[in-house]
Design brief:
The protein contains no helices and three strands. It has strands spanning 10-22, 28-39, 45-56. A hairpin with a 5-residue loop joins strand 1 (10-22) and strand 2.
Length: 63
C-alpha cells in the first residue's frame, strides 16, 4: 500500500541470500543481501528494500 501522512514506520533488517561468483582479477566474489522491511503502525508491510554488498577474496589487482 502507499504511505500516508501521519504514518509511523518501523523497520526490521535481516540477512537475505548469499551467493558466490568467480571474478577475473579479485578471485572469488561473495554477494550478500540485506533485506529491510518497513511496516506501518498497524503492522502492515509498506516497503521492502533489498541491498547487496560484495566482498572480494583478495584485493583487486590494479595492473
Amino acid at each position: 500500500r502507499h504511505m500516508r501522512p501521519g504514518d509511523v514506520l518501523t523497520s526490521t533488517t535481516r540477512p537475505g541470500n548469499t551467493w558466490e561468483k568467480q571474478g577475473r582479477r579479485s578471485g572469488k566474489l561473495v554477494f550478500s543481501e540485506s533485506v529491510t522491511e518497513y511496516r506501518d503502525q498497524d503492522g502492515e508491510l509498506v516497503v521492502t528494500a533489498i541491498g547487496v554488498g560484495v566482498r572480494t577474496e583478495r584485493p583487486v589487482d590494479q595492473g
